[in-house]
Amino acid sequence: MRTDEPLPAVEEALAALATGLWHWDTATGLVTVDAEAARLLGLPAEQVSLTEAQARARLHPVDWNEITGVIQLAVAEGTLAEVRVRIMDEQGRIVRVVRSRSKPSFDRARKAYRMIGTLQEVTEPTPGTPAGRSAVTGDWRRSREAFLLDAGRALAEARSTHEVLRVTANLSMPGFSPDGLAVFGVEGDRLTIIGHHGQQQGDDSPFSDMALDTDYPAAEVVRTGRAVYLSSPEQYKARYPLTWPLAERFGRRSWAFLPLTVAGRTMGAWMAAFTYPVAFTPDERSVLATVARMLAQALTRAGVAESERALTDGLQRTMLPRLGPQRIPGMSVAARYVPTGGGLQVGGDWYDVIPLPSGRFALVIGDVQGHDVRAAGLMGQLRIALRAYASEGHRPDAVLSRASRFLHGISDEDPFDPRFATCVYVEVDPTTGVLDIARAGHPDPAIRMADGTVLTRPTSGGLPLGIDPDADYPTTRLALESGETMLICTDGLIETGGHDLDSGWRRLRAILEDHKGDLEELADTLVQAVHGPSSHHTTGPLADRREDDIALLLLCREGEGCGCGDTVLVPAPVRRTMLTVAQAEPERVAVARQQLRELLHDWASPDQVDSAVLLLSELLTNVLVHTDSDALLVAEITGQVGERRLRIEVTDAGDDLPHKRRPGVLASSGRGLVLMELLAHAWGVDPRGEGKSIWFELYESVDGSGDGSWSP
């Protein structure tokens, strides 16, 4: 029977030759080693199974990357995988060098590699000596290809000059690795230092502003575009006597200076210095030249990316407002903007906070179609227009109507690329907490109540801005209670990672409900949970790899439970929602039912929740059928959990008071008050001068009996 375990006789024979056996299956992620292999890894001399992470911790990190590259190459060529590995102790010191030989195979069904191999300690000759070079001759070409594959991948993933330099400093070249590196750039007719490794701080001073006509290897490389190889101090001194004293104090024995060339232009030079003599054979020169080409390309990409990020940062700074330390009495505001990862990382999302002539203020958030410079330009113009219309004192519906006509006009200037924008405009009265909301094709706001309950607040809306210059934008009035927080955001915060509006809102609701920190921490948590670290220009650099831009605004009315500033203690938590159901919008009855269910999400008795929803439907339908007025719904929960009271009040402008009827079996109406008496713990009708208010109450029962045992 086939087994991966070595036979005892074979194991004894290999142990006598100081050779260990190991088995690695990437499907299970386990590396099994015998006693001799465990000893070579610096572990107790006994058979043991290690995780890949545990095995990797015993090896030099660069060698681990080389192993994976050699294995892939061996599988592709059908050959043995042979590589030298440095074994590290817990302090990160090299304790020995071993040679690993294995025959890897790839299981396509399991999509995993399977390897059985040997480990054998080798005496590592001095690097750069003939013995050192001959020791790696057998696997030189394979190691070189694996090294270049790994180096190319690492440099391609580096996104900044700092990352490029860090990757270059950590490269371990097969058979010869420099211990000193320097990257030179060019500014005018001067040589500059872009970065260096292996030297002390300040050691680069003599080289940081050197004229290009100086008798120095890096300057010559930039002037001529040809590499310079110096195998000994004597060669350096004879060829560059004037600058040899600058290099002598570093104690190096060999140097390679290579041009950094992109598109036929030499943009700088790369120096690799060695503490031992290097002959710079054709193979060694080939590796150095290949690394120099990859380094030049990586530095060019990083420079372009950094220029784009600087342009993006400057553009966004001019287009987005700084909230700064402004203080709104009784309220707090937090905002974030995170661009997409494509192109210049600019797009059409924006937010704004606008002081109004009435003493109120407006919150605006929107999204111009597209993720390009034109979208950003239109966004900037639209933001200025909205601010101007708001500052003139127009109401929310008028502000959006004017903005829509404005965007329609400027977007039509390019008939081949018309654009539209979604937007939410909220006029806030900081004294009363009243919110007047106008919406143009944008996601609805969400409210986090003082006890952590989160509701989406459906609001009336119109078409996105710029589509119809004569579009109307109805206004919805809500009230932000003490301790409540409103979230308005662009769809990039919701629809990402494969989520749609429904699943995205559920994810955001969980974040809002669980958060315990202040408003700024909540803003960061929302961004980080959805997109990773925030790239708001006040909190860090712009991030990339975004699926869509995101912008969000948080408005908190200070009070107990909000965590947004100085708190005002209230006797007991209050949960409240308001909603208007117009005669022309009977479909909002369904919205009201959903709002009530969300309000009662933790109510003890599901039967009472169903009763409340049924009674609410009856009240709202009665207003729409028997009056000509709109219905105003106010639902409120007070008291402690398990002993709460639900009060629902529906107000209309009708003068006729309801009266109880005795409907027949086949009657389609007339059961409203009968149901009220059967299901509600208390109910009543209150005249209001012009109109009336019908209300009912339900009292929570922990055991679900609904016996009405409640005391105010």
Automatic annotation (TrEMBL):
InterPro entries: Bact_Sigma-Reg, GAF, GAF-like_dom_sf, HATPase_C_sf, HATPase_dom, PAS-like_dom_sf, PAS_fold_3, PPM-type-like_dom_sf. The lineage of its organism: Bacteria, Bacillati, Actinomycetota, Actinomycetes, Kitasatosporales. The keyword Methyltransferase does not apply. Gene3D superfamilies: 3.30.450.40, Histidine kinase-like ATPase, C-terminal domain, PAS domain, PPM-type phosphatase domain. Residues 328-557 form the PPM-type phosphatase domain. It comes from the Bacteria. This is protein-serine/threonine phosphatase. Primarily acts as an independent SigF regulator that is sensitive to the osmosensory signal, mediating the cross talk of PknD with the SigF regulon. Possesses both phosphatase and kinase activities. The kinase domain functions as a classic anti-sigma factor-like kinase to phosphorylate the anti-anti-sigma factor domain at the canonical regulatory site, and the phosphatase domain antagonizes this activity. It holds the Pfam family SpoIIE. The keyword Transport does not apply. Its EC number is 3.1.3.16. GO terms for molecular function: ATP binding; kinase activity; metal ion binding; protein serine/threonine phosphatase activity. It catalyses: O-phospho-L-seryl-[protein] + H2O = L-seryl-[protein] + phosphate. Keywords: ATP-binding, Hydrolase, Kinase, Magnesium, Manganese, Metal-binding, Nucleotide-binding, Phosphoprotein, Protein phosphatase, Transferase.
